[in-house]
Specification:
The complex is a heterodimer. Chain A has one domain: Response regulator (Rossmann fold), CATH 3.40.50. Helices cover 47% and strands 22% of the residues of chain A. Chain A contains five helices and four strands. A four-stranded parallel β-sheet of chain A has the order 2-1-3-4, sandwiched between helices. In chain A, helix 1 packs across helix 5. Chain A is globular and about 35 Å long. The two termini of chain A are 13 Å apart. Chain B is an all-alpha fold. Chain B has two domains: 204 residues, no CATH class; 190 residues, no CATH class. Chain B has 19 helices and two strands. In chain B, helix 5 packs parallel to helix 7 and helix 11 packs antiparallel against helix 17. In chain B, 46% of the residues are buried. The chains are: A alpha/beta, B mainly alpha. Chains A and B meet through helix 2 and helix 4 of A and helix 1, helix 2, helix 12, helix 15 and helix 16 of B.
Amino acid sequence: MKRIMLICSAGMSTSLLVQKMEAAAKEAGVECKIWACGESEGKKQLDNADVILLGPQVRFIKDQMIKAIGDRPVKLEVIDTMSYGRMDGKAVLKQGLALCE
Amino acid sequence: MDKLMSFFAKLGAQRHLVAIRDGFVTLMPLMIIGSLVTLINQVPGIINQMFGTQLALPVFISTLNGNIWWGTFDMIGLMTVVAISYNLARHYDSDSLAAAVVSLSSYLAIVPQIITAVSETGEEVAAWGNVNRAFTNAQGLFVGIIIALIATEIFVSLKKNDKLVIKMPDGVPPAVGRSFAAVIPGGITVIAMTAAVMIIERVFHMMMGGESMMSIFALVTTFVSQPLLHVADSLGYALVVVFFNQFLWFFGLHGSNIIEGIIQPISLQMMEINAVAFQAGQTVPHIVTKPFLDAFVYIGGSGTVLGMLLAIFLVGKAKQHRTIAKLSIGPSCFNINEPTIFGMPIVLNPILFVPFICAPLVVATVSYLSMAWGLVGRTVAIVPWATPPIISGFLVTGGDWRACVLQIINIAISFVIYLPFVKVADRAEMKREKEMEA
């Protein structure tokens, strides 16, 4: 099971996306755990995730997150801006799962 | 432009500012509870007044509220030291709890230990062994932040130095060894911080003369806090903060996230002063607090985008715009604007740039003047920023219905400002959609 963690400033707008991604995952029959949290909470949960997706509005914390991740086998990417704005769960799920490969 | 953006990106990831911001995020629940009791506390007073006597239950409730205020807002300065230090040390992957404790100790070591009390005969006497609440609440905030940052830096860098760690011989349980690991770094930090502050106090005393020595708190209040609060409680400051926030969001960066570490320490002091004045029934002094920005300027999220969404519902014909507006209106009612900003998109959109910057600036000006002229009550309570408009206005002003009216007026103003630009953007989008079909 893939574990995808979404991070934005307070985990509010990404939590909206989580719902859409869960629906997309169910539809596609992919088993995964998806959740959203704020920046500081996210740093505590690095060990629980396989993939971390950052909201584009906090893309400036990417370097900091990479440093925090260190040697952990966690993949990190910034969510595509258009998919984020459209709250396109399917596209973001695809982006996340592609990172797992 | 790229350079400017990378500067702000760096600012947003600057570890000290991040530690300050995360520290306040940690304490936010307490501040909201403290605000809540301020609001609830209005009720027992009204009940007692209605019955013309002190009833047991209202008295119990107001004592309860007072106690909670004491445990939250009146201690927020102390907690800030712990929270900021903890977050900074965690950034360095150091022993964050030890760093927090060392910082708190460094802070308390410089707090004045004598208070002036009034005896039963009305005499003013100096009483040793007391901490004035002025040093535990937000008034001590600036000193607290500086101490937390410096003490943590010293502690973390000393702790990294292997020579300063007391080595235990083999056979000593590792847990015992660890308990000694922080002894020398912690000790040096507390001693160095306390000595440094004492030296600063004495140097200033020699330079300025005067009878009694000013504490570091008095110095910081006189030379930093007061001038800063004076500057920060102006329309100009409000407009600068709003402008930067909008500007950053226009480039798709989380504006308030980036500047929060800078504005929160100032805002929080104002909030405390406001709340205390409100409880005492005095004139509330400060206007430009964070709840002021959250509740009256960023209605529907940064950019006052609720007005824009309404404009799209009224005149928008382009499929893309209507879809985004439908998707965004729900989150926007809770001041979450990301779907709007990235979906429309507003980011790097030359047509929407003007209203996106102007609407919040105009709305901020109208709100500031309404409060400055006493038409609307000033902010006295902190509520979660996601509290929907109208409700948020009522709560942050301590129950002033005129604040709700101001919010409605602000939504209307932003609607009018966005309307012509939304029309132009809509026409352009329609044209594009038609071309796509053809």
